TrEMBL record, chain A:
Keyword entries, A-Z: FAD, Flavoprotein, Oxidoreductase
The protein, known as: Acyl-CoA dehydrogenase
Parts of the chain that traverse the membrane: none
Domain Acyl-CoA dehydrogenase/oxidase N-terminal as annotated: residue spans: 16-121
Keyword Nucleus: no
Automatic annotation (TrEMBL), chain B:
UniProt-listed SUPFAM superfamilies: Adenine nucleotide alpha hydrolases-like (SSF52402)
Keywords, comma-separated and alphabetical: Electron transport, Transport
Coiled-coil ranges from the UniProt annotation: none
Protein name as it appears in the record: Electron transfer flavoprotein subunit beta
Matches recorded under InterPro entries: ET-Flavoprotein_bsu_CS, ETF_a/b_N, ETF_b, ETF_beta_N, Rossmann-like_a/b/a_fold
Organism: Rhodovibrio sodomensis
Alphabetized Gene3D superfamilies for the sequence: HUPs
Length: 392, 249
């Protein structure tokens, strides 16, 4: 096992797993990610390597063919991917989307799908929640699923459904009881497991959306999509509660990716600042350059403490909404600060594609917006944690 | 068939080597260490032979400091079955390592010892050959291809000017060259399994081996920094300088 570099955590979790991921990622250099970025292509070789090595099945219980590891192991894997200069967004959801199925699906559903997901033969890495008129305001989604005999008929439209083109299965949130007929505000939504292999062109149409980063996101159109009742996950009308508990895991993992980005930026910046000589001395000797890098380092380290704590609370089954949200907030901002500092340190060279800084800079910007935007985290903290008036 | 793979912990070949300030040795403090790449290739080949049904067990042996256990775990995570750590600090010279490996072979009775052709730290390229002599076994060094037959190995060796094929009786000592195979990266389930695989611990004394050092390291120096070149204005000046200053013509 390698001794930690200054950019590793002082006591890294899962050191053997981290080393394994580092070895795997070392075979996919910056040029690999640059080419994929330029072509807006899916990083299939990376996803295949991670799948074959079993990393994407780390959270699936051993009984269903996974490694049955806790969330902190998944966080360590994704952090290392990002720290290596890569990006986990092409497949990170294959790790955790199955959580909804695992926790709320029937034993038949678990047996039918989880082993295939663990082997990577089945990809469940898309979750249709957001709609053009309802993103964070999830209870206002307009997609409906109406019971018709032994089927449900689904109508609606989803947007920002990442990786739908690279998924065999998709979880879908749809309203099964109209908003004005539910007992409780949070009821009336249901989760469905859609087999895209059967339904593409027969009720499901997927349109990719080009974005400022290489992220395979899409719009999904659902037109008279007919699925059997067995596609329902858990009980009808309880879907909102089901997706909420998956979100904390997602936030912790995305935060871990931000920590990886932050460490990559700090490492790149400190190396460049130490080597690049201007006016007869390395620019890193100048405090105007050195201090922002040191500050970015401190901020990343601080955010990592919150990420570790959130992962630990999740693993222990303790309430972790507060820490998971704060971890995502702090880590995404620390990564962004580190990215900005790195770009400034590199100067013009930072804008040249060959250094990967501009790519990582664009990529890490996403995490202040998705999977939940910074303002909504602040609203949650203000209202639900600090007890201030309802945030509007 | 049982395969024994010696594995050495060396400075990660991808990090820059630093020399200690007093020039007494290479500075390994806080340096990133890794399995010697040629050992890794040999371990990969051994595991492939097991997967192909030619071998029943792959046993790793590390000779060195306590941290060599991490090198063993790396190999166990690739798929080897168990490890043996012979704790010896400072690491013995090639002959000492070969004697230790001989003692382990006496205990384990492997059918094949598959080693790296050399370790990238000292570049000695001696241990495999010495072990073969001590055991009185056939040897095949710099192996780039291996076939297993009932009573022999058919190996291809990279030699000056071409490839040589040898039919080697069993048991044997083989050493892996760079092009033998590409090592795999460990899978997550195997990384987790490796933590539970057994590692036996010995000292050279346990094995009755004397590993005294016969060589003394005098001095280690950085290569001299390259000097800037000069530009000449004409072929005549170049010839003059080569003749008068460089004295090469």
């Amino acid at each position: 096992m390698a001794l930690p570099s200054p950019l590793d955590a002082d006591a890294p979790t899962w050191p053997e797993i981290r080393q394994g991921v580092r070895d795997l990622c070392a075979r996919l250099p910056g040029s690999y990610w640059r080419d994929k970025d330029r072509e807006r292509a899916y990083p299939k070789e990376f996803v295949d390597a991670l799948t074959e090595a079993g990393y994407l099945a780390c959270l699936i219980p051993e009984a269903y063919g996974g490694s049955g590891l806790p969330l902190s192991a998944a966080a360590a894997i994704l952090e290392e991917v990002h720290k290596s200069g890569g990006n986990g967004a092409a497949c990170h959801a294959q790790m955790y989307t199955m959580g909804t199925l695992l926790r709320h699906g029937s034993e038949d559903q678990r047996r039918a799908y989880l082993p295939g997901i663990a082997r990577g033969e089945l990809r469940l890495q898309a979750f249709g929640v957001s709609e053009p008129d309802a993103g964070s305001d999830t209870l206002s989604i307009k997609t409906t699923a109406v019971r018709d005999g032994d089927d449900y008929v689904i109508q609606g439209q989803k947007i920002w459904t990442s990786r739908a083109e690279h998924s065999d299965l998709m979880l879908l949130l749809a309203r099964t009881t109209p908003k004005d007929r539910v007992e409780k505000r949070s009821r009336g939504l249901s989760v469905f497991l859609i087999d895209l292999r059967q339904h593409i062109g027969r009720g499901v149409e997927i349109q990719p959306i080009r974005t400022m980063i290489n992220h395979a996101t899409t719009q999904v159109f659902l037109d008279d999509l007919r699925v059997p009742v067995s596609a329902l996950v858990g009980e009808p009308d309880r879907g909102f509660a089901y997706i909420l508990d998956g979100m904390n895991a997602e936030r912790v993992l995305i935060a871990a990716e931000c920590i990886g980005d932050g460490r990559w930026f700090v490492d790149q910046a400190r190396r460049y600042a130490s080597d690049r000589t201007v006016f007869d001395s390395p620019i890193g000797a100048k405090q105007g350059v050195q201090f922002p890098i040191a500050r970015a380092y401190a901020q990343v380290e601080a955010a990592d403490l919150m990420v570790q704590q959130a992962a630990q609370r999740f693993e222990r089954g303790q309430p972790c909404g507060k820490t998971a949200n704060m971890a995502k907030l702090l880590a995404s901002e620390a990564a962004w600060q580190a990215g900005d500092t790195c770009l400034q340190t590199f100067g013009g060279y930072g804008f040249a594609e060959d250094y990967d800084v501009e790519r990582k800079f664009r990529e890490t910007r996403l995490y202040q917006v998705a999977p939940v935007s910074t303002n909504l985290i602040l609203a949650y903290l203000g209202e639900h944690v600090l007890g201030m008036p309802r945030s509007t | 068939m049982k395969i024994l793979c010696p594995v050495k912990r060396v400075l990660d070949p991808y990090v820059k080597v630093r020399v200690k300030q007093d020039n007494s040795d290479v500075d390994l403090a806080n340096a990133k260490m890794a399995m010697n790449p040629f050992c890794e290739i040999a371990v990969e080949q051994a595991i492939r032979l097991k997967e192909q049904g030619h071998a029943s067990e792959v046993v790793l042996v590390a000779v060195g400091p306590q941290q060599s256990q991490e090198t063993l775990r790396t190999g166990l995570a690739m798929g080897a079955d168990r490890g043996i750590l012979v704790k010896a600090e400072p690491a013995p010279e090639p002959l000492g390592v070969a004697k230790i490996l001989k003692a382990i072979c006496d205990k384990e009775s492997p059918d094949l010892v598959f080693a790296g052709k050399q370790a990238v730290d000292g570049d000695n390229n001696q241990t495999g050959q010495m072990l073969s002599a001590l055991l009185g076994w056939a040897q095949g060094t710099f192996v780039s291809k291996v076939e297993v037959h009932d009573d022999h190995f058919l190996v291809t060796r990279e030699i000056d000017g071409g490839l040589e094929q040898l039919k080697i009786g069993r048991p044997a000592v083989l050493t892996a060259d760079l092009r033998l195979c590409e090592p795999r990266y460990a899978s997550l389930p195997n990384i987790m399994k490796a933590k539970k695989k057994p590692i036996d611990n010995y000292t050279p004394e346990d094995l009755g081996v004397e590993v005294g050092h016969r060589l003394t390291l005098q001095k280690v120096e950085e290569p001299p920094a390259r000097q800037a070149g000069i530009k000449v204005d004409s072929v005549g000046e170049l010839v003059d300088k080569l003749h008068d200053e460089a004295k090469v013509i």
